[in-house]
Amino acid sequence: MKITALAGGIGGARFLRGLREHLQGRGDDWAGAEITVIGNTADDITLFGLRVCPDLDTVMYTLGGGIHEEQGWGRSDETFGVSAELAAYEVPPDWFTLGDRDIATHIVRTQMLRAGWSLTDVTAALCDRWQPGVRLLPMSDDPVETHVVVAGDDASREAVHFQEWWVREQARRPALEFVFLGAAEAKPTAAVLDAIHGADVVLLPPSNPVVSIGAILQVVGVGDALRAATAPIVGVSPIIGGRPVRGMADACLSAIGVETAAAAVAGHYGARIAGGLLDGWLVANQDASTAGPPGVVQRSHPLLMTTRGEAAGLAGAALDLALELRH
Ligand code: GDP
Ligand code: CA
């Protein structure tokens, strides 16, 4: 049995760890299901000459047991000696946190990329250490970077790297537009397309629908592969009761004219029977009364993933809905 999921960072990673734990406890054929994760790489950034892939690393550290649990990103037991030294040299940027342990990952990645390895192979090599229990694939081996168009000081428009807007500015300036640089030329890897075609179930975890899942869908061919997949596609809402749970997904949704509401996100993904992506949609219990798009089977379940048990229960509910829709 094969499950393929698209994922960004924290929402995706917690859901996937829940899915892996749910499968371990299952008493049917799905107990040994293989999980393939198509990770967002459009948040990637080069800092101090190092290639940083925040979403791939969040998934890898979370499933591999190296994540800073409370924070949801970065390494546990981290120290910041390198950052302090860079600050002493007054070498910018100082707004993106890079811990010493984390830097080792970026050094290994950058070294291998420079030696000619693909990001897919580099990610697999990093996962040899972390053993996340899933196959983690970057959405493409070609670089894609999300940039955010914001209003400048004098009614001009200016574009900044997504991380600069998200981390440095905390999304304070309203986004006018997202530009996925490189996406039009980026190819999905053969492994990504195979994972979609060969899946028995496809899941869209509660990742950011615009800059995480949305960025993966910008890679030409990924959306078509999903629409053509024989597997049912079930999504989980990242919005609970009109609010994003962690992060500022509302600032991303409003930029593309989508209301911060579970039903509006489902409408944005669209029903598969109407040329969209979704066969099923899982919403929070408090959103159960709001209907999603026609043709999408909606169920409700507690959607907050504070504990690992909650995440496993949520993943189990998403999988059960997909199994119900399989025939
Ligand atoms: P990022 O790359 O670290 O921003 O992570 P993702 O794109 O994977 O996830 C961010 C999204 O996850 C946000 O839109 C949140 O609303 C959603 N999210 C985070 N935690 C939870 C949770 O416990 N439950 C649900 N349903 N959504 C969550
Ligand atoms: Ca991210």
What brief labels describe this structure?
12 helices; three-stranded antiparallel sheet; 19% strand; 327 residues; binds guanosine-5'-diphosphate; binds calcium ion; alpha/beta; globular; Rossmann fold
What molecules are bound to this protein? guanosine-5'-diphosphate, calcium ion
Low-confidence stretches: none
Fraction in beta strands:
15-25%
Kindly report the oligomeric state of this protein: single chain
Gross CATH architecture: 3-Layer(aba) Sandwich
Please, how many domains? Answer: 1
Major β-sheet strand ordering = 5-2-1-9-10-13-14
CATH homologous superfamily designation: CofD-like domains
Note down, in words, how this protein is organized.
This protein is α/β, with parallel strands linked by helices and 327 residues long. The chain has a single domain (2-141, 184-326), classed as CofD-like domains (Rossmann fold, 3-Layer(aba) Sandwich), CATH 3.40.50. It is 37% helix and 19% strand. It has 12 helices and 14 strands. The chain has helices spanning 10-24, 54-64, 81-88, 100-114, 119-130, 162-168, 190-197, 213-218, 222-228, 249-255, 262-269, 308-324; strands spanning 2-7, 34-39, 45-47, 50-52, 135-138, 145-151, 157-161, 175-181, 201-204, 233-236, 239-240, 243-244, 280-283, 297-300. A 7-stranded parallel beta sheet has the order 5-2-1-9-10-13-14, with helices on both faces. The chain has a 3-stranded antiparallel beta sheet with strand order 7-6-8. α1 (10-24) runs parallel beside α2. The longest helix is centred in the last third of the chain and has 17 residues, at 308-324. The protein is globular and about 60 Å long. The model has no long low-confidence stretch (mean pLDDT 97). Guanosine-5'-diphosphate binds at residues 7-12, 55, 58, 206-208, 212, 236-238, 240, 244-247, 249, 303-305.
